[in-house]
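Dear support,

Our group has been running a series of protein-ligand predictions, and this particular one with 4'-deoxy-4'-aminopyridoxal-5'-phosphate is the one our PI (initials K.S.) wants archived with full inputs and outputs. We had some confusion internally about which version of the output was final, so please treat the block below as the authoritative record. The input we submitted was:
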Amino acid sequence: MTRILHRQTRIPLPVAVAGEGPYVIDSVGRRYLDASGGAAVSCLGHSHRSVIEAIKAQLDALPYAHTSFFTNEPAEALAEHLTQRAPAGISHVYFVSGGSEANETAFKLARQYFWNRGERERSRIIARRQSYHGNTLGALAVGGNAGRRAVYEPLLIEVSHIEPCYAYRHRRDDESEGAYGERAAAALEAEILRLGPGTVMAFVAETVVGATLGAVPAAPGYFRRIREICDRYGILLILDEVMSGMGRTGTLFACEQDGVTPDIVTCAKGLGAGYQPIGACLMSSTIYDTIALSPEGFQHGFTYIGHASACAGALAVQRAIEAEGLLDNCRKQGIRLAEALGQRFAQHAHVGDIRGRGLFIGVELVADRETKQPFAAQDRLNARVKAKAMEAGLMCYPAGGTADGVSGDHILLAPPFIIAASHVEEIVDKLAAAVDGAIAEVRA
Ligand code: PMP
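Confirmed final output from the archive:
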């Protein structure tokens, strides 16, 4: 009997006891291929020696020292590593314990930036529907995931939500990808004008939408147009790369592929690869100067910011990614996985779309491929696929579903960057069987 409040208690969870490369092993010796990196976290698999050794060494030297008294070497080195590789203009970092904290930090940085500049009317955030930015109240308010928000609506600050850039469902048949990207971005300008440009502080978006839509990259040109609109009205662009950043899409920052530099970018999951809980909020030098040079400093903080052992783990993760050429492998296996899925599901009556970048791939399931009609929410198709996959020894992340009534069920794949061709085969075989088994259950 568990004494933990788990997300769901209907089906008891297996007990994870060991890790071996991309596999998690449970207490009865069953092996699960981690095709989703948990929730796009475990980019190095589950037994990376150099990371484990680096954390042990830091624990021996100094586990933690509070940042109101000290900085520490791994935090400084990790900040240097990330800012040297970040898009031009990003100069400083704030380390936290996860994605929600990174985003809360981003929103507060944006607010204090305008406060310090004397633009105190600027407090509004514009974000997108079908997005996820975390479960703390601020991040939940900015997120546009109807299902996750429902219970907490009365507690949430007011945020505007525009349409996401989601070509599979929103691009018109007579429209090019580029024209669609322009049209989707124009919704931001319309909303800024509706609110009054002087009241808006930031536009927030996931560079590649993860948990809510299942690895949906923006149409070409979308983010460049978004950047222009933000600049025109003096609004900050905050990109949430908690899921899509740190190499997941084949480049360290997902936005490199969109050709834009945000004012603030957040990351977490792949930063520490699950070896330690850590997130980061990276900012431009303009924001840093406006806040750091002010007499009051940044009006924010958590007990575990810049945690030495967490930073040592993340630094070892990032060094391993470079030393082992894992971004190359991520791109290579990402292409292999997308092609293998494409072949396996080409004729499948219920696979509507396969999309993504690098090893961040979404499969959207639909009741009818012609009309794109989703399965009914009560069919709980994505939960069934997850259960069937677990029975077969495969971890995949069921995303979205039909809770918001405007998209199909999605399966998110985000395996570790260390996978080989044999793992790709295992993922596709087991996923195809899980999808067919789940659909057969729904039909029965
Ligand atoms: N932003 C995005 C894009 C995410 O995918 C997540 C987690 N799924 C978060 C923020 C929140 O991160 P955490 O759960 O670490 O607080």
